[in-house]
Amino acid sequence: xNRAIITGVTGVVGTALIKELIENDVxxxxxxxxxxxxxxxxxxxxxxxxxxxxxSELSNFQNDTGKxxxxxxxxxxxxxxxxxxxxxxxxxxxxxxxxxAVEVAKRFGCKMFIGAGSQAEYGRxxxxxxxxxxxxxxxxxxxxxxxxxxMTREYAHQLGLGHIWTxxxxxxxxxxxxxxxxxxxxxxxxxxETPTLTxxxxxWDYLYSADAARAFRLLGEKGIDGKTYVIxxxxxxxxxxxxxxxxxxxxxxxxxxxxxxxxSEKQVMYLCADVSELENDIGWESxxxxxxxxxxxxxxxx
Length: 302
Fold this sequence. Notes:
By secondary structure, the protein is of the alpha/beta class.
């Protein structure tokens, strides 16, 4: 892979992928929304070209670079937080935008389209999440991601492109959303507050963003057309243990009030990725343990 295009670059995975790709001498074309305050997260670098293109503008976005690219990474997605996750019209638009992104990939000469799906596609399961685990999404976000994965695969193949879909579990790291468990707990502890939490009995799979980025790079180089890959560490631990680890790094000895918040009505209680196909197909493995990832995140925040 010599050149790649990325949408949705300002989040936790996108910013890590920029770093991973430029460290491996991949030339990047980054598509971002004009006026976004998060664009400051995109570094200035000789290998990076930035162009403004919102999701709604993808259908008309043309290749004026005089270059062809190898891989198109599509992370951009609207209406991802809170009540918007059930905004059905917004997610119907997201499916269209994902198909528009496939067309852009074709115009720029890409050979592979890689889309970012979600564990929300699965709904609630008690077992290890595999690419072929039956999907029963329970909100508009998960339903649309599942549909986008299936429709972009078919459309990419119609246009002669390879296609890989990923289902991302819980990734944490620099530029993570402020409302995630990791970031909200860190912020409360830094303020000297006493966090109120659920019982923390959920079995959860967390992956550091640098490990996720390396998986996406290797998928761009070695991933197999037509496959779905689950992106996680492959290890599940009680959420309570993760919370205690964060406390021990950020504010040792601070009190955590477990059990003061009830579980949500559709609480996912088990989340763990089967990463065997990542291991077998692209030689990937998770390298950053959770406590080291939290320490790196705290260094970044400082």
